[in-house]
Amino acid sequence: MNEQDQTAAIQEILERHSGKEGSLLPILHAVQAECGCISDMAKRQIAEALNLTCAEVHGVASFYHDFRDAPAAKPVVRLCRAEACQARGSEALAAEAEHIADGRVLIEPVYCLGLCGVGPNAMIGNALHARLDAARLDSLIAEVSV
User: Fold this and answer.
1) From CA 57, how far away is CA 44, in angstroms rounded?
2) What is the maximum alpha-carbon separation in the chain?
3) Is 117 exposed, middle or buried (0-12, 13-18, 19+ CB in 10 A)?
4) What is the pLDDT of residue 6?
5) CA dihedral (47, 53, 56, 61) positive or negative
6) What is the rounded distance in angstroms from the CA atom of residue 27 to the CA atom of residue 22?
7) pLDDT, tens digit, for every residue of 106-126?
8) CATH among 3.10.310.40, 3.40.190.10, 3.40.50.2000, 3.40.30.10 for 76-144
9) Mean pLDDT across the stretch 125-138?
């Protein structure tokens, strides 16, 4: 997405959230989803619209691991590492995940995807995948890394 398109997309997001209390996090999530990252230009635009400093917006964006300064170079597989998934074998799966990924995707740990009873779980894009084992994870990675 070029800078002009990104600026227009961010402006649209800001307009949707205009006047809403506590809108910084929803705006950051929407910008991340639309643009793939939260660039310095996006932080300045958000700060100006919300009457915040760039440092305040950067502080929030850098605090949460979900937000990126630049688009991910590879597809991202978020593998749940929370206690419920650990009880269902996510630790063993996580140990194998990097080997399974073989550099095709970026494996990121997350702590609860909300499917605790059917773990281990992963999120790829906006899709949740439950009851994972090494074979299923390998299949999912193959699908997204084509």
Assistant:
1) 8
2) 49
3) exposed
4) 86
5) positive
6) 10
7) 888 888 898 999 989 999 887
8) 3.40.30.10
9) 90
Read off φ and ψ for residue 113, nearest 5 degrees. Answer: -105, 0
Provide the CB-side half-sphere exposure for 51 (13 A, CA).
4
Sequence ranges of the domains in the chain: 3-63, 76-144
Question: 3-class DSSP state for residue 104?
Answer: coil
- C-alpha count within 13 angstroms, C-beta hemisphere, residue 32: 17
Phi and psi for 74 in degrees, rounded to 5? -130, 165
Shortest CA distance to 44 belongs to which of 64, 14, 65? 14
| Nearest CA-CA partner of 75 in 145, 122, 127 | 145
